Amino acid sequence: MWELFDTAAFAPFVIAGFVLLILLAVELLGFFFGGISGFLDNLLPESLIDADLDADMSVDSDMSLGLRALDWLYVGRIPTMILLILFIASFCITGFIIQQLAYSSLGHFISPWLAALDALVISVPLLKMLSALLYPILPKDESSAVSGDSLVGKPARILLGSASIGHPAQAKVIDEHGQSHFVMIEPDPSALTANNSNPLLMSGSAVNLSTDNPSADKEARPLFSAEDKLIITKKVAGHYLVKKIS
To answer: What is the pTM of this model?
Structure first.
């Protein structure tokens, strides 16, 4: 068996095997001292990471072909270090099998570069299969993370101050996982207009608009307080719009 390490036909796979051992050692040390897994994951495009925030989210139609290929291989859903280890292990094992089959059928090993190319092609779908089997059982820190748009439709309660159009206030929103999110909200003008012919509300009660008193007009802006039951209607830049529910 040890003579395989001295055979040129197995050189690419032996080298890959040593790289695999180094990565395994680094990953093992990472459990105690912090490894490079997080660093590799931080290099991923944000579109791949965002696509995994919501398990029901389909792949973005604007995603490029390369990003679609990476998503197909579970990049961004499984830690990058684990995927790298799986890929190199698949490459090594496939390469050794190819050379052994070549020797059994042809009586000699094929070119190491041809064997490496064959192993590389086979390793890609093999990585896909292994990733699909591994993904459901892996603990995922991001399993309870949600995208910003997923908070639309969730109840919100104001914590500080009051919210009026153009003057957002801080509110607390609880997602489907029971996690609390602290966001800025303001009344949704379209919802106010749709729900009331005179949409100007003051702490939930109707206010008559006086055209003769500009200060009254300023005070009659739609105003939501901590006592109001609100629901998020849409996400806009930096904050959310809400409407009042009974």
So the answer is: 0.51
Contacts of 49 (CB under 8 A, 6+ apart): 41, 76
CA distance 130 to 124: 10
Distance between CA atoms of 68 and 74, rounded to whole angstroms? Answer: 10
Q: Identify whether the C-beta of residue 77 lies closer than 8 Å to the C-beta of residue 128.
A: no
Q: In what order do the strands lie in the sheet with 223-224?
A: 163-164, 223-224, 201-202, 205-206
Length of the chain (residues): 246
What is the per-residue pLDDT across 112-122, written as a single tens digit (0 to 9) for each? 999 999 999 99
155 - beta bridge partners? Answer: 231
β-strands 169-174, 201-202 pairing: unpaired
Hey, what are 66's tokens?
Answer: 């390369």
pLDDT tens digits for range 156-180: 988 877 888 888 888 888 887 777 7
Q: What is the DSSP string of 45-110?
A: -HHHHHHTTSTTPPPPTT--HHHHHHHHTTBTTB-HHHHHHHHHHHHHHHHHHHHHHHHHHHSSPP
Strand partners, 234: 241
